Amino acid sequence: MTAVGGALGYNPPFPAFGRTMDFIRGLHNLRPHHHGTVATIGNFDGVHRGHTHLIEHLAASAGGSGLRTTLVTFEPLPSEFFAGDHAPPRLTRLREKLELLAKLPVDQVLCLRFDARLAALSPEDFVRRVLVDGLGVRHLLVGDDFRFGHRRQGDFRRLAQLGQALGFTVETAPTLIDHGERISSTRIRAALAGGELDLAQRLLGHPYHMSGRVARGDQRGRELGFPTANVHLHRRNSPVRGVFAVEVLGVSDRPWPAVANVGIRPTVDGGRRALLEVHLLDFHGDLYGRHLQIRFCRFIRPERRFPDLAALRAQIAADVVVARDFFNEHQEDDYRERLQIHP
């Protein structure tokens, strides 16, 4: 097990509800106690209800055998390696993913660096090096459309053959259906892109959120009369764009109402990468360096270019009014309960 410290800002194992989850970065950090597992493989982007369903099924298959439930995942995501900036936007950065997984019956997460060397492994080499020699897998749970190995040459049938030859069983993962459609990260991205936050939350099983550390910006928000906390997205692309009513965790002992803009700020400088800027309503204080979680509650409007800063300032003021009205209308207990994360 390796400490990730610096880049992620914390060290494994991850405590959650009286249990811990080991995080293992790379095969070279596997230790004898990580050997002997039931496992599944995937991106687990968003850690949505489908993932939760699969992980609970995996834990049930372990039963009282003493085998460790193991998730094998990748960083960067394979789509990011192959498509770069044209890859679909990820729902969760690695830290967010691990924090959500730590709330589930997962004993350990093996994160493999997806690079040219890993992409070039044949299906047989991947199974032998990662699953058999590395993890000592006894049972593997994957989707029926699972592909692996160089040029995606391996499929479920080949995996089952290798399992029979090398001493582990292979099972098709259960599919979770919502309103007649399979729950997937792709479907959640579409909901978020359309501003359908309630649908995204229903598919995720928890409110959509982003988290990160507050960094110093150019003070443009303060000049406009609406100071903002600038949070690094740690993503090539953002799955949400526009202006939102949000709640911020990490400021006090309860969520703090705020307005967030996710975009390239076309009126100000039109940068290439999207930024997350959060204006906390009625907040006075220094947030630099603090780690915040931003929960997206209501889509207000898309980002757009304004003719001048005066027009932008007037629109931000109008956005704040919309957000205040939203929070004033949704202060009842069931709304607070709805915003709790339920994996």
List keywords for this structure.
disordered N terminus, alpha/beta, 12 helices, six-stranded antiparallel beta barrel, seven-stranded mixed β-sheet, Elongation Factor Tu (Ef-tu), domain 3, Rossmann fold, 31% helix, 343 residues
Description:
This protein has 343 residues and is of the alpha/beta class. It has 2 domains: 5-178, Rossmann fold, CATH 3.40.50.620; 209-338, Riboflavin kinase-like (Elongation Factor Tu (Ef-tu), domain 3, Beta Barrel). Helix content is 31%, strand content 25%. It has 12 helices and 15 strands. The protein has helices at residues 5-8, 49-62, 78-83, 94-101, 116-119, 123-134, 156-166, 185-193, 197-204, 220-224, 309-329, 333-338, and strands spanning 14-16, 19-25, 37-41, 68-75, 108-113, 137-142, 169-172, 177-178, 181-182, 209-215, 229-231, 242-249, 256-263, 275-280, 291-301. The strands form 3 sheets. Strands 1-2-5-4-3-6-7 form a 7-stranded mixed beta sheet, sandwiched between helices. Strands 10-11-14-13-12-15 form a 6-stranded antiparallel β-barrel. α6 packs across α7 (156-166). The longest helix is centred in the last third of the chain and has 21 residues, at 309-329. The two termini are 25 Å apart. Residues 1-11 and 338-343 have low confidence and may be disordered.
